[in-house]
Fold each of these.
Amino acid sequence: MSGARDECGVFGVYGDPAAAQTVLAGLFALQHRGQESAGIAAAGAAGMRVHTGMGLVSQVFGSVDMGSLEGEAAIGHVRYSTQGESVPENAQPFAVRLRGGYLAVCQNGNITNAVALRRELEEQGAIFRTTVDTEVVAHLVARGARQGLAAAIAGALERLEGAYALLFLTPEGVVGARDPAGIRPLVLGRTEDGRHVLASETCALDLVGAAYVRDVAPGEILSLGAGGLVSRRRPGGRERLCVFEGVYLARPDSLLRGQAVHSVRRRAGQRLAQEAPAPADIVVGVPDSGLSAAMGYAQESGLPYEMGLVRNRYAGRTFIQPTALLREGGVRLKLSPLASVLGGRRVVLVDDSVVRGTTARRIVRLVRDAGAAAVHVRVASPPVRFPCHYGIDTGDPGQLAAARLDLDGLRREIGADSLAFLSLEGLMWAAGADAAGEDAARGYCHACFSGLYPAGVPAEPGKFAISALAGGGSGGGA
Ligand code: SF4
């Protein structure tokens, strides 16, 4: 039901004779984070090779001889563009040849000062071929390459603002870096034979047989190379992991800060039942990200949990559709109501979030058309009233349903008999933190709900800010 669009996923490994194949497996596990393009850069004694393309991982790599991507180190990326069009030249990893070496970089998140940095670099003579903020990072590193790539990467990171999980591939190995507020996630895993891997989510570790070791710390630079694992921490601020990862973005079988995402969502549903009970006969979750919360709601309320909606697993997630028209049509393609379950029943319909409201309206109509006697919508997160500047595409602020309508107006718009959202305090409780962020070590970013931006806002916000600077053309972001 959400309407937020995902971001990107990254995966990297070092010391693996089949590094590209391992990354490929990791990207399959991260496919839910981006379905527009995918790519892998691999490196070894023969140098670096890169393959990127548009579409799903299976489409991009289905006919690729993975043996051609040889090397013991590799990084990979799945992309959903958060700053503009989805075009081949913006697919990642972004690779450059340097004198005596090479560099590839891929990113999840948004560099909020990318426009200013790009303007500065262009004034110094730099030429850009894409409109992704990742290219700005590559230029900054290349500029400092004479001092060595490790130092150049550290120097480049000092210039960046915003929210990011970055992976670099260099002749020395793989480097992972997380923004100082730790808004975008990045985890470290280790295989049984001692290889280290880096990934956006732990579900990708599971697929390659790696155990979760720990989260990369906010502001940490972690190098995987011949010297083993080397950690360099920049002075970080308070950790502010994106709480929307737990609400909607991450897979339920992933861990966030060591907690199962499914458990966070289930607790959110339990708390929602306490905060917003409903006169109903059954609880139905909206597949997939509403299911855990619906189970929690049913458990707490004592109402039976029923499967009232079936997901067509061969259609992509709703948010990934690039236009409103496809998004709205997509609901029917992706969800089917079970009239035998819904007919004549008063239904609590539980979902993770409401962003634009269009998907919610469609699903409520589906449930009603299947014969439900009443539809009480319960949302396991607070109303999204503010745009995300940190790598999640919530659309224009004017598209946010809760920013333009009060609660009753929104209820009428989606056609529900009643509507309630989980409080921010309730969500923070479910995620294991408090909303005021007093416990800095367990703080979260909740800016799209609260308007409190932990890493500032871009001076030049907007999906096409980099494209505008470039005089039009392809959009950027990842
Ligand atoms: S504004 Fe919302 S979606 Fe964006 S990083 Fe913060 S919590 Fe996540």
Amino acid sequence: MKILITGGAGFIASHVADAYVQAGHQVTIADNLSTGKLEYINPAATFVKLDITDQVAIQELILRERFEVINHHAAHILVGHSVVDPQFDAQTNIMGLLNIMEAAKQIPIKKIILAATGGAMYGNRATPFVETMPALPESPYGVSKRADELYLNYYFKQYQIPYVSLRYSNVYGPRQNPHGESGVIAIFSEALAKGQQPIIHGDGTNTRDYVYVSDVAAANLLALTTQFVGELNIGTQTEISTNEVYDLVAQALRVNFPKQYDAPRPGDVMASSLDFTKAKEILGWQPQIDFATGVKQVAEWYQTFNVVQG
Ligand SMILES: NC(=O)c1ccc[n+]([C@@H]2O[C@H](COP(=O)([O-])OP(=O)(O)OC[C@H]3O[C@@H](n4cnc5c(N)ncnc54)[C@H](O)[C@@H]3O)[C@@H](O)[C@H]2O)c1
């Protein structure tokens, strides 16, 4: 299939691009390289440097190339920054999608796949979160991702463009940016691999659902062929505390610093996990990489990466 991947120079979508290329698809990547890296772009993919908020550039590309599928990962991903500057978040996450969809409705497109959020969609509720729970996003970032889903539903009803929204839990794996506000495994791994001591916000008992990036890439492959239209949680339904993450990363890197705590971050939910029964029933998807194995792989990747970077 002829596929456009937006954000394909970034952490998750570069792995999706690798999986699509390996499956024999013809991949084009559109990315502004704001957080993505040229070296993560699959060499078999065509790369176009553009910003999805540049309506002319993104629409010209879509109308010229007439992609069969658009896999949309380019986004503003910082939840904290979305609170400080909700207009910037909406400009990228909502207007960016609308720029894409207004061109997509003019070509015989087969499907849109959206990278959505499970962690920022359901609010402070009892876990695990199920797709039937009404969305209760607590940040502009969560609101913009929910708005994207509602727009995709509108384009499906109005223009019959099928979509699959994959609501990821906390994704982790090689290439994750350790300098952002989330991605605690990347942050701990990079710091500990450099011999620095990372800070744990709060008492470390808050939990998250961590899904490995190759499992997320597999869900994106399965989403290409399903007839299903709608939202699917992509997570592990397993809650891991921040203290456990720290211990596993430190163990994988064979370091033994005492834990250092700081005040909890305002707005951080205490617990998060996603029920993936629907994805299992519809896509036949389930996570393959257990947490200890995944953390070990990531910690080793950051160790090598730090050596290479110097
Ligand atoms: N990392 C997670 O745990 C997680 C969880 C849920 C959802 N998501 C979603 O997955 C997607 C990818 O996230 P990631 O963690 O790989 O982040 P990332 O920052 O590594 O990837 C985002 C990519 O989009 C590009 N980009 C950003 N703004 C752009 C713009 N205006 N025009 C063109 N390109 C632009 C960046 O350069 C980068 O390559 C995002 O949509 C994010 O909201 C991520």
